[in-house]
């Protein structure tokens, strides 16, 4: 089943923050390939969708960048700003809580009640 582009677009910030919290520095194409790898090809992020999300997180001060020349071409790497690590973890926790609640609605019989957070 193909994933709706709207669902994917709404999830990009979470995907980016999670990958960068695990890998420190990544460039755009690398992020696209990592998502494809982790989802066995089920989720494919286009560069046209990815870069606006990266630019938005950078404008918000959550991401920092550095540029390196690789094989004669400039490559822009992204990382979570040191002073934003906690903020990024809070955003991921919020998204995780939301997904948990959504899953409870979609499949209520499959859930064991967990203490409220």
Automatic annotation (TrEMBL):
<protein>
    <recommendedName>
        <fullName>Transcription regulator PadR N-terminal domain-containing protein</fullName>
    </recommendedName>
</protein>
<dbReference type="InterPro" id="IPR036390">
    <property type="entry name" value="WH_DNA-bd_sf"/>
</dbReference>
<dbReference type="InterPro" id="IPR052509">
    <property type="entry name" value="Metal_resp_DNA-bind_regulator"/>
</dbReference>
<dbReference type="InterPro" id="IPR036388">
    <property type="entry name" value="WH-like_DNA-bd_sf"/>
</dbReference>
<dbReference type="InterPro" id="IPR005149">
    <property type="entry name" value="Tscrpt_reg_PadR_N"/>
</dbReference>
<dbReference type="Pfam" id="PF03551">
    <property type="entry name" value="PadR"/>
</dbReference>
<feature type="domain" description="Transcription regulator PadR N-terminal">
    <location>
        <begin position="16"/>
        <end position="82"/>
    </location>
</feature>
